[in-house]
Design a protein that fits this description.
12% strand; 5-stranded parallel β-sheet; alpha/beta; Rossmann fold; 201 residues
Length: 201
């Protein structure tokens, strides 16, 4: 097996926390990745500004990871913490290096799948492959994708989107998808001008 990667799992706890816990348990049992995620009550945000909270997420958690898995449920795109965690993954500085990204749709999500490069096409299988077309096509096929992922994919960032059913019983496939996200993390400049979400909706 190739080198295990440090992974941060981002989700909307209120609806998708069980999927996150499943992946963390899978990692503990199979060793496919090292979990660097923040847990639901790890950060005491009382009296902290949004920027202070983002700095804690970035410097204390995502800094130690090289790939972020974004669990995409029907309301993930409306949650500020999910947006902040994606932004922190894309952020690049001398002490916080940018990471790779992989999106996993929950069964409740309305998103399709998207294989970024050819190697993802082979891993996901031809029957799962979707070819990117334009913004209208993306809006039709990815209604529940967080905006920061949506616009980066639209600009050409190699971020794959897979379905839960294709990975939850296949740790080997998930390992390969994580490794590919890591390997291409510097292949394309992430778009950083998208405003940070200020509140949940």
């Amino acid at each position: 097996m190739r080198h295990r990667h440090n992974v941060f799992v981002s989700c909307y706890y209120g609806e998708d926390g069980d999927y996150k816990e499943y992946l963390e348990d899978m990692a503990a049992e199979t060793g496919i990745f090292i979990d660097r995620s923040v847990q639901e009550y790890d950060i005491d945000d009382r009296g902290l500004s949004s920027e202070q909270i983002r700095k804690i997420i970035r410097d204390n958690y995502i800094r130690d990871s090289t790939v972020t898995i974004v669990i995409c449920g029907p309301n993930s795109r409306r949650r500020k913490f999910v947006d902040w965690e994606i932004h922190a993954t894309m952020y690049d500085s001398p002490i916080n290096h940018r990471g790779g990204l992989l999106a996993i749709n929950t069964p409740e999500s309305g998103n399709c799948t998207l294989a970024a490069p050819v190697d993802e096409y082979m891993i996901q299988g031809a029957y799962r492959y979707r070819e990117y077309h334009d913004q209208d096509w993306l809006e039709d096929h990815f209604p529940d994708l967080p905006d920061r992922l949506f616009f980066n994919i639209m600009d050409g960032a190699p971020i794959s989107v897979v379905d839960w059913k294709d990975v939850y019983q296949d740790p080997g496939r998930l390992f390969e998808l994580i490794h590919n996200a890591f390997a291409r993390r510097n292949d394309f400049p992430y778009r950083m001008d998208i405003p940070l979400r200020k509140k949940n909706s």
